[in-house]
Specification:
heterodimer, A: 542 residues, mainly alpha, 3 domains, two-stranded antiparallel ribbon, B: 223 residues, Serine Threonine Protein Phosphatase 5, Tetratricopeptide repeat, Arc Repressor Mutant, subunit A, 2 domains, 4 strands, 61% helix, flat, ribosome binding (chain B), WH-like_DNA-bd_sf (chain B), protein biosynthesis (chain B), RNA binding (chain B)
Chain lengths: 542, 223
């Protein structure tokens, strides 16, 4: 049995044996990978032996793909593949598809899926050369062509997690390509020629085309509408959309578009992509945790960039609460590190939003926030050195923005002065929040009074009366935000998001503070339940 | 997003809803629609962002005049963040261009509510007037914006201060104040109370939902 070949105990023992042999080989290969974007790909030593365990693994893997055994594939994909990677391919690529092709009867579909993993592994653990990037793109084209351009729905079933990862990785590689395309400094002539002659590879239009085609083929938007408003699901889904493969790929493509548009700085369009998806626990995205996290991260980030801080806060705290509650399930996940990083970024964004729009948080989340970003939060709230803190947090927590077009290779001057898209977005964002830098201070003073003359407050704040009036106008405007209540994500009413409000009567400021009455309900409910338990125990003892 | 276009033509609606929004051939439709907005004092952010999107993907189509008109329109929507949402879709070399820099400085003044300074800057150089010349009713739109902010914040404001915010004097000022249904008494403008300028202390009370009680009600059944 294949299983016997890589039982865990067995594995540990064998790792010992192979490490010494492996290491010498690794250093050789590593020299080859050194700098990113070297044309010569990390080729395998020609006569490399594929270990028997790997051979068996691949045959077993192939058989389960053929049999559409989603349950087994789940384990193969999430557990075995990663374990074997750690053991044999931590520092070198998996065997090339051509080498394993005899093991799988030259099954092209399987080889395409295998290459998807092969390149993903190179991206994750090694550094992809320009050629790897091109080949990986072509492989995605093969995969999507196979799925989209067949006369009948293809007979293939893959675990949801894998389907999500396909879309996620496709976009990641697109983003990674866009960022590396702009760094032309150390490129050889040959590479520049390659980039110049192949503008269609990893172009925005081709990426959007894939995502939209998957959405259309799966009729996912129609399906979501039926889900929301009722109707005949089978009819809405159609021949392709009723297959889980198509349905999930279509659904994940919507989330993918949310992400792509966000990376491009189009925040309204990003949220518009979510028109048919309702953000709640029943939504499909919650079935795959990384997808769940991604969705809320980009929704929250888009809201933040649209100055809808209250909505951003809600998005971040919802998903962070969810992650905290389900911690035990994903600490074991192979993507745990990534999830943890995204959460950390969301705490940073949450800290920024809280500073920009003071809001009472769920206690749990608030404690975590203070633990992680307590210092930064208090600096931002007190307005000390706050712009630097905002900048640092933004840089750490923002997505990797991309510019949709490559450099102009005809114009050498423009090549040298390409500006990172990050700079562009950070500059606009920071300029925007700089305008409200005085608000925390102003707020702390206003909280102390119910009426106050403008001149007197200006003297306290050591500014002239005219400047204070200006700051009050800013305060007022920034305490009003569009906030979602119902409908799709872009909708919302303009409401007051501050507990502190004021009005000016000529030279006097009249201040009012909303107070939150004490909450008794929760306390009583908790204790009723507790007493009930005590009574139940007592009765049981009788 | 203030003054959302209520009468968005169907062609535009279906264009921005579907994949057609990526088709470079449609840029002329969006550009024409912008021209109508500029002439008729209408405003449709979503359609204008769609035009900028096409420029983003197809830099060779970029039309500087259109971009300027879109940004001028977005100025009139302050305090909504429209202007920045447009800037995010442009590139760094584009926004350091002189005309866009000029508009950005106007935007900053509006965002900072430095209205008197805004007019001072605007009137200091005829090039500003030229920049906004395609957008009819620009000054009126800015004055309405000022009026919105003032009425959110004030119940009373001195005539002199308001005049500097609006860059209006004499009969023009009187007419504007009347149009807003404000009253002038002893050089003080009285602004009626609205939901934003009344500053009332509110105590937010707890609202217990039925769902919270289901468990307790369940117990009572057992007894």
């Amino acid at each position: 049995m294949y299983h016997d070949n890589y039982e865990e105990d067995d594995l540990a023992a064998e790792v010992e044996l192979v490490t010494s042999a492996q290491f010498t080989q690794d250093t050789d290969v590593e020299d080859g990978f050194g700098s990113e974007g070297v044309i010569s790909s990390q080729k395998q030593p020609i006569a490399v032996e594929i270990p028997d365990i790997i051979k068996n693994f691949i045959t077993y893997f192939h058989r389960n793909v053929l049999e559409n055994n989603v349950y087994e594939l789940h384990t193969i994909y999430e557990v075995s593949f990663n374990k074997l990677t750690d053991r044999f391919y931590a520092k070198q690529p998996w065997p090339e598809a051509e080498l394993i092709s005899p093991l799988v009867d030259d099954d092209q579909v399987f080889l395409t899926l295998y290459r998807e993993l092969y390149y993903r592994h190179i991206y994750a653990r090694l550094s992809p050369s320009l050629q790897d990037r091109f080949h990986s793109y072509e492989n995605y084209c093969d995969l999507f062509n196979y799925i989209l351009n067949s006369d009948f729905p293809v007979n293939l079933e893959l675990p949801n997690q894998w389907l999500w990862d396909i879309i996620d990785e496709f976009i990641y590689q697109f983003q990674s390509f866009c960022n590396c395309r702009n760094r032309v400094k150390n490129r050889s002539e040959e590479e520049i020629a390659l980039l110049r002659d192949n503008p269609q590879i990893w172009s925005c239009y081709s990426v959007l085309n894939v995502l939209y085609s998957l959405i259309q083929k799966s009729r996912i938007n129609e399906q979501l509408l039926v889900n929301k408003n009722g109707g005949d699901m089978l009819e809405a889904a159609g021949e392709y959309g009723s297959k889980p493969l198509y349905k999930m790929l279509g659904y994940f493509s919507i989330i993918g578009l949310l992400r792509v548009h966000c990376l491009l700085g189009d925040y309204t369009l990003a949220l518009k992509m979510m028109d048919n998806i309702e953000l709640n626990k029943k939504a499909l995205f919650s079935r795959v945790i990384p997808c769940h996290v991604t969705t809320y991260y980009y929704v929250g980030f888009s809201y933040m960039m649209m100055r809808r801080y209250a909505d951003a806060i809600k998005a971040f705290s919802t998903v962070l609460t969810f992650i905290q509650r389900t911690k035990q399930y994903h600490t074991r996940s192979y993507q745990f590190d990534q999830i943890a990083k995204k959460c950390d970024q969301m705490y940073a964004l949450l800290a920024m939003c809280i500073a920009l729009c003071p809001t009472r948080l769920d206690e749990n989340i608030h404690n975590h926030l203070r633990e992680k970003y307590g210092d930064q939060l208090s600096k931002m709230q007190k307005g000390e050195d706050s712009m630097n803190v905002f900048e640092d947090l933004f840089q750490y927590a923002c997505p990797k923005f991309i510019s949709p077009n490559g450099p102009n290779f005809e114009d050498p001057a423009s090549l040298s002065q390409a500006i990172e898209p990050y700079q562009h977005h950070a500059k606009i964002f920071l300029n925007d929040i700089r305008n409200q830098a005085m608000i925390p201070t102003l707020r702390s003073f206003l909280k102390l009074y119910t009426t106050m003359s403008i001149d007197k407050l200006a003297a306290f704040l050591e500014m002239d009366a005219e400047e204070l009036r200006t700051q009050l106008l800013i305060f007022k405007q920034r305490s009003r935000q569009q906030k979602w209540t119902t409908g799709n994500l872009l909708e919302g009413d303009v409401v007051s998001t501050s507990d502190l409000d004021f009005c000016i009567k000529q030279d006097m400021i009249h201040i009012a503070e909303s107070k939150i009455g004490r909450r008794y309900g929760d306390w009583f409910l908790r204790n009723i339940t507790r007493f009930q338990d005590v009574i139940a125990t007592l009765e049981a003892k009788n | 997003m203030a003054n959302l276009a209520m009468n968005r033509p169907e062609v535009i609606q279906s264009l921005i809803d579907g994949v057609d929004r990526y088709n470079p051939d449609n840029i002329s439709i969006l550009e024409e629609y912008l021209t109508t907005q500029c002439q008729n004092e209408e405003y449709d952010l979503m359609a204008n962002l769609a035009a900028l999107k096409l420029y983003q993907f197809n830099p060779h189509l970029t039309n500087d005049k259109v971009i300027i008109n879109i940004l001028v329109k977005a100025l009139t929507a302050v305090p909504a963040p429209d202007f920045n949402l447009c800037l995010y879709l442009l590139t760094e070399p584009m926004i350091i261009d002189e005309p866009i820099q000029q508009l950005t400085s106007l935007q900053q003044l509006l965002e900072q509510s430095r209205f008197a300074k805004f007019w001072e800057t605007f009137n200091s150089d005829p090039s500003y007037e030229k920049l906004v010349s395609n957008v009819s009713g620009f000054k009126k739109a800015i004055r309405n914006l000022v009026a919105r902010v003032v009425s959110m914040t004030h119940q009373q404001i001195s005539v002199q201060l308001l005049q500097s915010y609006l860059d209006l004097k004499g009969d023009d000022f009187t007419a504007f104040v009347k149009e807003q249904n404000w009253e002038v008494k002893d050089s003080i403008v009285q602004i009626p109370v609205n939901k934003d300028n009344e500053a009332k202390t509110v105590v937010i009370r707890e609202n217990i939902k039925f769902e919270q009680l289901t468990k307790v009600i369940g117990y009572s059944n057992e007894i």
